[in-house]
Amino acid sequence: MKLARLEEFRQVAYEYLGRAKDATFELTDAILLTRNVYSLADLSLSPVFRRKWPSIYEALQDSRPQRQKLMQLYIKQIPTQEERPLLAGDHTNWSRPEAVTLQERTFEHSGTSIAGNKPITIGQGYSTIAWIPEKSGSWALPLRHERITSGESPITKAIWQLRQVCKHLPIRPISVWDSEYGCAPFVLKTTSIAADILIRLRSNLCLWGEPEAYSGKGRPKKHGSKFKLNEPTTWSEAASVFEVDDPKLHRVRASLWKNLHFRKAAARPMSLIRVERLDQQGNQRISKPLWLASGV
């Protein structure tokens, strides 16, 4: 049954690859089966790629995959009967500082060392939203993986991709995002999308609480007390605190605050979560705390 389902999936995916689909399909298999790839010509040596190496370049030039139909095909593989699907979004860069003729190059943040000791490189950015099927492991199914053009930003591209995916999901998913998306534009523009979001926040970020009751004079306030993540003196009392024992992280403490918002996103209140790792006695933090914001 599983083999028949795999054969059916591969046949449908093959039909959605457009022109040069034979070479493109074999190239996909070669990528999946090759551990280390240093050039496109390396992939032509794979036993599953039965064509000559120039076919790889021709396939990449001619192929026009039907991305929307492929995404719908991938979504059909997500089981939604037992639990809500977990989606993860991310922005990665492809550094190409020497490719001066490459079109649509943009300035990208890089986590690796660069000449001049600046974390900025020139290349192309890509936005990915993937389904995470397992609680442990690194396997994931990318539902959309697309280049961010010079007329887009990682935020606008991620919002568009999340909206496209959620249109075809029969159940409301949970989506997780890195600190790059912990900003007012992202949380505001995802309000109408049928997905819950969980975002990692920078430790120096500042949020705001609910405003006081309207006094009847002047314009009503939009913001209450300031809540700066790296200044405990600005924190209000947590709504709840609990501790659990994790097999890998050992003792973990989570603190929850409700109804906080970004300064430019007062219309969307968020819940704030602080996660700490403790020692066996439960009275000493082992690593820096993790700050998360969730919204529904």
Provide structural commentary.
Helix content is 24%, strand content 28%. With 296 residues, the protein is an alpha+beta fold. It has 3 domains: 64 residues, no CATH class; 133 residues, Alpha-Beta Complex (Transposase Inhibitor Protein From Tn5, Chain A, domain 1), CATH 3.90.350; 90 residues, no CATH class. Strands 1, 2, 3, 4, 5, 6, 9, 10, 11 and 12 form a 10-stranded mixed sheet that branches. β5, α7 and β6 form a beta-alpha-beta unit.
How would you concisely characterize the structure shown here?
By secondary structure, the protein is of the alpha+beta class. Helix content is 24%, strand content 28%. The strands form 2 sheets. Strands 1, 2, 3, 4, 5, 6, 9, 10, 11 and 12 form a 10-stranded mixed β-sheet that branches. A two-stranded antiparallel ribbon has the order 7-8.
Could you name the CATH class of the largest domain? Alpha Beta
Total beta strand runs:
12
Q: Major β-sheet, in short?
A: 10 strands, mixed
Corresponding CATH superfamily of the largest domain: Transposase Inhibitor Protein From Tn5, Chain A, domain 1
**H and E string:** HHHHHEEEEHEHEEEEEEE
Number of helices: 7
Helix content: 10-25%
Write the topology of this structure.
Elements: H1 2-15, H2 21-33, H3 40-43, H4 54-62, H5 67-75, E1 86-95, E2 106-109, E3 120-131, E4 141-148, H6 154-168, E5 174-177, H7 184-189, E6 196-200, E7 206-208, E8 226-228, E9 240-246, E10 250-260, E11 270-278, E12 290-295
Parallel strand pairs: 1-5, 5-6
Antiparallel strand pairs: 1-3, 2-3, 3-4, 6-12, 7-8, 9-10, 10-11, 11-12
Helix pairs in contact: 2-4
